[in-house]
Amino acid sequence: MKLLIIGMDGGHVDAFRRGWTPYMESLLTSGVQTEMNEDLVGRGWSKIITGEDGSKTGAIYDRPELNGTHEWSLRFKLDDIPGIGRETKTLWDKIGDRGYRVGIMNVPTAFPAPEVNGFFVSGGGGGGPVLQDPTEDLCYPRDIHSYLMEMGYIVDERLGSMIAEKGIYDADAFFQRLIRKNGKRAESFIELSQRFDIDFGFVVFKSSSNMAEFLLLPELKAAQSAGQNELSELTSAIKTYYEAFDGQVKHLCESFPDAEVLFVSDHGMAAREWSFNPNALLQEVGLQKPSRRNRGTFELVRFAKKLIPFSLRVAIRNNKNVKKAYESLVTFDSQGSQAFSTLIGDWRHGVYVNDDERFGGPVPASQKDTVQADIIDAISRHPEAIKHGVTASPRPNAGAQGSPHFPDVVLHVPDGYISSGDFNQSFRKFDMPPWPHEIASVTRGQLLCGKASNAMAVCVRGEWDPSLDAQDLTLIHHHALSRFPE
Predict the structure, then answer these.
(1) Within this chain, do residues 378 and 328 fall inside the same structural domain, yes or no?
(2) Same domain for 311 and 414?
(3) CB 437 within 8 A of CB 222
(4) 291 within a domain of the structure (yes/no)
(5) Average pLDDT of each block of 10 consecutive residues along the chain (486 residues)?
(6) Is the dihedral of CA 405, 407, 413, 417 positive or negative?
């Protein structure tokens, strides 16, 4: 193998400097780190896969349906990118077309498995399947399916599947399940890579890496506030997880001793410190009109969620119609507002001009640029935005070269700020629940942790291509491609 990319969803360099992962720490120390600053609007894995920004491809975390309403969706897969496979080619297609063999495993949003020069095992993400056992449509070639089944390969696990479906609330049992999943993934990747004699490998540890930091960072912050130095039950379980993961990464790297290795992630993670409501800010500057009726509906749904058991909430979320209705809730007057933001999830949220073409709003499409400039100017002058270090900029790749799904204004927000419509002010300090936490903490409705801009990009056993100057995750794509000349 010439190049191996090891991806960790939500991973960041500091996660491997706690003294729990000596092998990883030694590699990161010897490697060459590149600082990343992700906008957290575009999907990081899609940037790596396509080499293009989400403002061009439309690969973003939450997307408007563009049907003249404010209907919204969190579902996304690579096939949703216009021209994918033709004008926009994936990294594995480009390398495969140059005559090199590729092995791809668990890369998010790539499902079903495409035909490649080598092997491919699909991953979840973007509304993809949360399955324990692989199905044939997630495998290329199809005959590797039987091998994965014999290995006990686990496709994916999420908080919902582990808590609501399996009823795993014990921290040790929870993370032992993730350790087993990672071990099966590493073993399967090594075996298939050797069987297919691949030149380029790309394996991602998705939900396990994300969940570890999602649970750990708030716990560490709460412990610090309480002046606690001892390891809680939850922290001890996560420490054991990382110790096992260190050995699994070592097994991967030592199985391919001649390969250059890239450690990458799609974003970092940060414990919640502040809540931020972009819609409240837009109302304060006169660009959005509130709606009592819509706000009342939103509050009713929010109150009802608190009364429903977590397992039932997960089941309801799996209903496509209910999920769509929830994702499309607005708190503002859709006909009296010039601009709006959506507040779903733990990523960053830009601002959309409420134009007549995309959303049936009051702003003529011909005036989008004017309103966009008004939004940026208003935010740049807003005293609270200035105080909190929130800035705004016009979207990249506007016009015919860009995706209409992408927000018109990008908001640059410090890590630790999570968007929320649960209150009617632009900023509110978040009170972290007291230490110690437990697995069940995530069932109580509050996001304690969110995505952060510090994505990981470290090159080991090599140097970054000096001709590349990108400072976002498209760098990974172009660097990998440079290692496989035509």
Answers:
(1) yes
(2) yes
(3) yes
(4) yes
(5) 98 97 98 94 97 97 96 93 94 98 96 96 74 92 98 91 90 97 98 99 95 97 96 97 99 99 98 98 98 92 79 74 83 97 94 98 98 98 98 94 96 97 95 94 87 98 92 96 97
(6) negative
CA neighbor of 80 nearest in space, from 61, 103, 104:
61
Both 166 and 297 in one domain: the answer is: no
Instruction: Let me know: does 205 contact 106? Beta carbons within 8 Å.
Output: yes
Domain count along the chain: 2
The whole domain housing 288 covers: 274-431
Continuous H helices in 125-165: 144-151, 159
Tokens of 272: 């919640």
- Assess contact for 352 and 64: CB atoms under 8 A: yes
Q: Distance between CA atoms of 355 and 89, rounded to whole angstroms?
A: 31
CA–CA gap between residue 258 and residue 476 (Å, rounded)? 19
- The token pair at 15 is 């996660």
Q: Per residue in 300-315, pLDDT tens? A: 888 877 778 777 777 7
Asked if residue 82 is part of any domain, the answer here is: no
Is the domain of 281 the same as that of 427?
Answer: yes
Q: How many helices (H) and strands (E) does the chain have?
A: 17, 19
